[in-house]
Amino acid sequence: MRVIDMARMLVLGAAFVAAGGMAGWAEISTQEFKVLSLPHDVACTPDGIAWYSAQRTGALGRLDPKTGAVKEIPLGKDSSPHGVIVGPDGALWLTDGGQNAIARVDPGTEDVKLYPAPPGTPYMNLNTAAFDGKGVLWFTGQAGYYGKVDPKTGEVKVWKAPKGRGPYGIAATPKGDIYYASLAGSHIARIDTATGQATVIEPPNKDQGARRVWSDSKGAIWVSEWNSGHVSRYDPADKGWKTWKLPTEKPLPYAVYVDEKDKVWLSDFGGNAMIRFDPASEKFEVFKSPREAANVRQILGCPGQVWAPESGTSMLVVFRY
After folding, report:
1. What residues pair up with 18 in beta bridges, in sequence order?
2. How many angstroms separate the CA atoms of 37 and 60, rounded?
3. Backbone angles phi, psi at 287, to 5 degrees
């Protein structure tokens, strides 16, 4: 475990890049943890524990930042988890492509429960999940599917995506509405949680490669555009779009997450960096990884912190602000 004082690094100019002027000196510190496997996605629970999907080993990883202790919980034969989130029940929910199922892990007992796809469902290449306002989990499958799990009944339903391959990131708004991003389809879509019907919303950037989505506190949808190197915002209120190019030389924005202060965080494969964007000032801050090919995938946070899984280095990094 190694602690880096990012505030000092910012003063030294070693980890900060601003586009269009300084965005203000941020008091941000980071802490780094070595984990057992290459982490794909990450989530944190209110007790401070960080959880990650260990895709290659078929496990859910658990990190205690206070002690640095790490352990992994096997999810089952042929498991290959992609996304991990914390449910309203306090459990960890994972999209498990290897088992073509949704997995639920009780953080106390570590019991694993699987919600397999309906019989006859082909391989979906499950990606990410989000809970709507009624406690139903919705998920995406990059092979061209999306679906839901009702934790109360255990029922799993699957729909074919309206434009085929691509459903990837998914997120809920504060009101519980569900939106997903289509990487191959280069669009976002809104799911009617009552009927299951998905409505495609075309962005202004053609072939932009929408990879992940997240909602801010007002219900606007932020999109990381893998192909175009932009971060975009869609406002459901007026159906308007606005877009910004990331400031690194060859940006490849993978994930997007909006914190409780409505600051927008992105992981940038091309810049080998984490990026924070202030929509009010339209300024960027860039925090470069000290390791090559960090390859941060999904990013999630708890109040005052954002977690970044470095899938290329077997590290978890927490940004505290």
Report:
1. 285
2. 10
3. -115, 100
Q: Are 48 and 33 in contact (CB under 8 A)?
A: no
- DSSP of 17-63: -BSSS-------EEEEEE-SS-EEEEEE-TTS-EEEEETTTTEEEEE
Contact criterion met (CB below 8 Å) for 226 and 213: no
DSSP string, 53-105: EETTTTEEEEEETTTTEEEEEE--TT--EEEEEE-TTS-EEEEETTTTEEEEE
Q: What share of the chain is helix, strand, coil (3-state, %, to 5)?
A: 0, 50, 50
Q: Residue 10 carries which side chain, given as an amino acid letter? A: L
SS3 state at 10: helix
Tokens linked to 113: 């429960």
Question: For the whole model, what pTM was predicted?
Answer: 0.92
Tens digits of pLDDT across the chain (321 residues): 222 233 323 322 333 333 333 334 458 999 999 999 999 999 999 999 999 999 999 999 999 999 999 999 999 999 999 999 999 999 999 999 999 999 999 999 999 999 999 999 999 999 999 999 999 999 999 999 999 999 999 999 999 999 999 999 999 999 999 999 999 999 999 999 999 999 999 999 899 999 999 999 999 999 999 999 999 999 999 999 999 999 999 999 999 999 999 999 999 999 999 999 999 999 999 999 999 999 999 999 999 999 999 999 999 999 999
The answer to whether 286 touches 20, Cβ cutoff 8 Å, is no
Q: Which residues lie across from 189 on neighbouring strands?
A: 180, 200
Task: Identify the H or E element spanning 140.
Answer: strand 137-141
Nearest residue to 2 (alpha-carbon basis) of 36, 42, 34, 28? 34
Domain boundaries, the chain: 117-245
Under 8 Å CB-to-CB from 112, ≥6 apart: which residues? 73, 74, 75, 76, 103, 104, 105
CA distance 187 to 207: 8
CATH number 3.15.10.40 given to 117-245: no
